[in-house]
Design a protein that fits this description.
single chain; alpha+beta; seven-stranded mixed sheet; 19 helices; 26 strands; 19% strand
């Protein structure tokens, strides 16, 4: 289920290392697990449900997730009215009128520490991260209601390119009715045929991988025969107005995704649990976060083959439906975005845009996003006025924060699901000894750690669950590990270590000074206990290849790496692929992990908890089983976890407050989009 991304998706900053097409052997189990979380969502929607944004003033039924209630974190279908909420915080919405191209400021410059790893190409099934293009150039069928999510912690799924959607009475089938009269920036029409072609091309280029839908085996692809013959039909007739032969393939209802006309496309999931993931998979973290002009793709060499996507699109942008177009590009340098003069959303009213900021045409004519990997360069650019928005590393945060009259830090709400963590190798002496690990977790000065690493914008948590899901968080009411040297020494004595023990390696990322600071604080705990340790600085590439692996590989590697503590507090951090309470359990703690179990940890009691999410257990039974698992995890201490509110984990974005008022970020907390959503940037005047 999780794609552990050498990316800001799942693992922030590295750009989708493990793709949606990787690790077939373990994915199926994980996805079913995660689908279990969806059971709570869809089981409440056994009647046909319609979601629409056709009127900004009407009450509309939306699929939502409540994360603010202490009694429930389940996904439900609720009726809610569209409202506009104003706030002074950096993630808030303000009532924004549609800005014409003639009145918008001429340009805005953003510095980022990473660049999309595949250039302009949004077509490979592995995705392209960081997703600078999301919501600006490309749009999804649906998204989360940004205002409700960031201001209230309520996850409401609302249409974007869909005008509305319905869920069948049995909860397995989603019918998307698409907006009409929408065009791509080159004038090609957007319709269901374009979407169909885009989706099956992604499945085809994934090598017909069953988990092509963000590593979820959401759809039964057994009857799908998409291949060279179908591609030939597409090339022969095009997909805007398909030939009779191609249309018969598109309308084949034995395939899980099919069309019934130019503006209706149907998704049939394998079960009602998977239907929820089919729905959210159409959004930011999903497989069709980018909806391309597939006709343009066909006219420029096609999507590619299972051996690889068409490299033409690395340097040539495919048209999208969004409010911006790519107007300039320098590989490993920058991307220039200019307002789309034919954007379909220009006709939307201010009330409609306020109700769904994702549809905004944006306020700035031209936005330049520069790749600046050097932390000092980004800080200098902001403070000299070269950049108006810049990612600021934690070593410079205090300086920026002290100039609050000039700059505003982007701080995520408390219900974000960004989880930095430290993992022990639980399979090699002496870190395989529970009392040894307990000694270390009580020898760390957490107050110093949180202040030095996160500038206070984080809390230590009781893993593996995110505090955003209170119903499943900290089952048993434990307290986070506390700094207590007396207790640490007691645990160390109980470990009964020999007179000589190997040094524990503390791995950190190169170029991350704050990561080294974190390691220094932990090493001080080792020294206080008289234990040997070494800080080893590794490249991002090496760290990804060493620790972002599926459980079987990670376990085997752990046997050869020796005792280690892995610091995923800097370049990488654990982030959910989709907003679901089972995510972190399945991928930090299970033998079915596709890349998040850096401790290579397994315990049958914990695995039983993971299994309970998908085997039809009642909520009360899941909570009972997982409470036992929580005790096991807390006592065995394979991880130390945190919850941070900094968008870059050990840093965040800062705005020149004389120019920029606010912006929204990745609504899935996946890090899939790292910079602000460009068209949601609100200016001060």
């Amino acid at each position: 289920m999780t794609s552990f991304i050498v990316s800001k998706s799942r693992w922030t900053k590295g750009k989708r290392a493990l793709s949606r097409v990787a690790v077939v052997v373990v994915v199926v189990v994980i996805i079913v697990i995660v689908a279990g979380a969806g059971y709570f969502a869809i089981s409440a929607t056994r009647t046909s449900t319609t979601t629409s944004t056709s009127s900004s003033t009407s009450t509309s039924s939306t699929t939502s997730i409540s994360t603010t209630s202490t009694s429930s974190s389940t996904i439900s279908t609720t009726s809610s009215s569209s409202t506009t909420t104003s706030s002074s915080t950096t993630f808030s919405s303000t009532t924004t009128t549609t800005t014409s191209n003639t009145s918008a400021p001429s340009s805005l410059i953003i510095d980022d520490s990473a660049i999309p790893f595949d250039g302009l190409n949004t077509f490979p099934p592995t995705g392209n991260s960081p997703a600078w293009y999301y919501s600006a150039v490309y749009q999804p069928l649906v998204s989360y209601n940004l205002t409700a999510e960031f201001n209230q912690g309520s996850y409401q799924i609302v249409p974007v390119l869909a005008s509305n959607y319905t869920i069948s009475p049995d909860g397995t089938t989603i019918t998307f009715n698409l907006r009409q009269n929408v065009k791509f920036s080159n004038g090609d029409p957007f319709n269901a045929y374009q979407v169909w072609g885009d989706l099956y091309a992604q499945w085809y280029t994934s090598g017909n991988y069953s988990g092509w839908w963000d590593a979820y085996p959401t759809f039964n692809m057994a009857n799908v025969t998409f291949g060279p013959a179908t591609a030939a039909l597409e090339n022969s007739s095009g997909v805007i107005n398909p030939s009779a032969a191609l249309l018969s393939v598109m309308e084949n209802s034995s395939w899980p995704i099919y069309v019934t006309g130019p503006y209706q496309i149907i998704f049939r999931a394998m079960n009602s649990e998977d239907a929820y993931y089919a729905l959210v998979g159409t959004g930011v973290g999903g497989v069709i976060a980018y909806l391309n002009d597939f006709q343009y793709v066909l006219e420029h060499g096609g999507q590619g083959s299972p051996a690889g996507a068409n490299s033409y699109f690395v340097d040539n942008s495919v048209p999208g439906t969004g409010p911006y177009v790519v107007s300039g590009y320098q590989p490993n340098g920058y991307v220039e975005f200019s307002q789309n003069p034919t954007y379909w959303g220009d006709s939307l009213s201010a009330a409609q845009i306020a109700a769904n900021p994702m549809l905004s045409p944006g306020q700035v004519k031209n936005i330049f996003v520069y790749y600046k990997p050097d932390d000092l360069s980004r800080y200098v650019d902001l403070t000299t006025g070269t950049a108006q928005i810049s990612e600021i590393a934690s070593e410079y945060l205090s300086s920026v924060q002290s100039q609050s009259n000039k700059y505003t830090l982007a701080i995520a709400p408390k219900w974000s699901t960004m989880m930095p963590m430290i993992g022990f190798n639980v399979n090699v002496f002496p870190t395989n000894i529970t009392d040894f690990r307990q000694a270390i977790v009580h020898a760390i000065n957490y107050t110093d750690f949180v202040q030095s690493v996160f500038l206070g914008h984080a809390i230590e948590t009781v893993g593996p669950e995110f505090p955003a899901f209170p119903q499943y968080y900290d089952l048993g009411n434990f307290t986070p590990y506390n700094y207590n040297m007396t207790l640490a020494e007691q645990y160390l004595a109980e470990a009964k270590l020999p007179s000589s023990v190997p040094a524990t390696t503390l791995y950190v990322f190169s170029g991350c000074l704050t990561c080294e600071t974190a390691a220094d604080i932990v090493q001080a705990g080792f020294q206080a206990l008289g234990l040997p340790s070494n800080i080893v600085v590794e490249t991002t590439s090496n760290m990804g290849s060493m620790f972002l692996n599926p459980y079987p590989t990670q376990y085997n590697d752990s046997l050869s790496y020796g005792p280690y503590m892995e610091f995923f507090v800097g370049q990488f951090a654990y982030l959910p692929y989709m907003v679901t309470p089972v995510d972190s359990w399945a991928n930090m703690m299970g033998d079915t992990s596709v890349g998040g179990n850096i401790a290579a940890y397994y315990n049958p009691t914990v695995q039983a908890c993971i299994t309970s999410f998908f085997n039809g257990s009642s909520t009360s039974n899941v909570l009972s089983i997982c409470t036992q698992a929580q005790r096991q995890i807390y006592d065995q201490a394979p991880y130390i976890t945190f919850n941070t509110y900094l968008y870059a984990v050990i840093g965040t974005y800062a705005y020149n407050s004389a120019i920029v008022k606010s912006a929204y970020y990745d609504p899935d907390w996946t890090g899939y989009t790292d910079i602000p959503l460009l068209n949601t940037i609100v200016l001060t005047s």
